[in-house]
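Exercise 7. Given the encoded structure of a 222-residue chain, write a plausible sequence.
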């Protein structure tokens, strides 16, 4: 498909690892920074290395293979609590240590560049960019809710959507979780650039959604 004078070819992605997670985070950082400078051409150029990628793989869980759906039924429903978990963990996956970018910010990038970064709310295989699996965080229970774990901040941890899906509830409590608060970097999950993405036009498609999440993170960030 064409965007301006640039052709975006679809590229099937079957798997990704830690290297790709870091590459995705760096590409989207450069993209958001270009948007904040009001340089759309630079933003599109920054996105070019990953533009058009489509997730065609399957994630294997500890208990079964072939799963490819977000565990929505077990997702923490309190959105402010989820955001608190991500901020506390410094937007890092406590399983792999990789950088995370909140789903709302990934959606904002999609809203600005839908052909380069496709999105499907149901995470349908073949309809979305792998960054949503690789970077979007989930707040998961350390001790599973089904086993008596409390729906509280001290029993929740940040996991990439992919890391979350690959681990079963029965194993989460035994995982050697990383203490990401010990990191010395200033990674903020691109929350500081979220308002710029909204001002650039991301808020036009989902104004309430983006405004709510942007204010939520602004209130929670130190």
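Solution.
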């Amino acid at each position: 498909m064409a965007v301006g004078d640039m052709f975006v070819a679809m590229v099937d992605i079957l798997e990704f690892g830690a290297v790709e997670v870091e590459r995705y985070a760096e590409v989207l950082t450069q993209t958001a920074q270009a948007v904040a400078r009001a340089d759309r051409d630079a933003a599109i150029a920054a996105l070019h290395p990953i533009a058009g990628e489509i997730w065609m793989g399957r994630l294997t869980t500890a208990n079964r293979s072939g799963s490819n759906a977000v565990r929505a039924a077990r997702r923490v429903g309190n959105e402010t609590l989820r955001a608190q978990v991500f901020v506390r963990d410094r937007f890092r996956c406590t399983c792999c240590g990789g950088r995370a970018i909140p789903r709302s910010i990934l959606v904002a990038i999609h809203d600005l560049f839908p052909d380069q970064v496709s999105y499907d709310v149901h995470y349908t295989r073949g309809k979305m960019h792998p960054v949503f699996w690789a970077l979007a965080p989930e707040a998961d229970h350390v001790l599973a809710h089904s086993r008596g774990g409390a729906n509280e901040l001290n029993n929740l941890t940040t996991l990439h959507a992919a890391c979350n899906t690959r681990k079963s509830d029965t194993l989460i409590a035994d995982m050697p979780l990383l203490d990401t608060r010990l990191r010395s970097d200033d990674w903020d999950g691109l929350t500081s650039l979220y308002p710029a993405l909204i001002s650039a036009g991301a808020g036009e498609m989902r104004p309430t959604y983006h405004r709510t999440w942007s204010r939520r993170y602004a209130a929670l960030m130190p």
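Remark. The radius of gyration is 17 Å. Students should compare their own answers with the one above.
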